[in-house]
Amino acid sequence: MRRALLILSLILATFALQARAQNEWKATLAQRLPLMGHRNWILVADSAYPLQTAPGIETIETHSSQIDVVRYVLQQINNSIHMRPEIFMDAELPYVPDQDAPGASDYRQQIADALRGYKIDSELHDKLIAQMAESSQSFHVLVLKTNLTVPYSSVFIRLNCKYWPTDAENRMRAKMAAAKP
To answer: What does pTM read for this prediction?
Structure first.
């Protein structure tokens, strides 16, 4: 009987720790988002994503599914008044076969559903990592690690200004260039 109670206590403690971790990453995101803006990055990464040492990169373990984290992060960004997401994914993902990475096809379908309506740019994984590393020299990068075990599945979200669209910036820059003697 004692053994059963001990096992039950350990199981309950594990669930409590996971629930706490899930709340902690959401609380951290809620604290960081109002401070973040264009040129900041949020990366929703698979479980094997490495802990980077650049001073501008903050990594948090979510203990959550990647699809849930992506949906939650995008919901929070979309609810902000000042930023919008630009989404990048690894160009390698469409070539990852199920026989080498079980669940890859299912993941591709799930992430396509979660990102429906968003423009998604594909880049080689190493190029995206390099962009984040370069950005982290001046800007904050938030990495949210998930429990996903499919390679090349990270979702890179570069933040941009919601109230100043890219086409407005381009028109302004063209006017500035035309006004120079």
So the answer is: 0.85
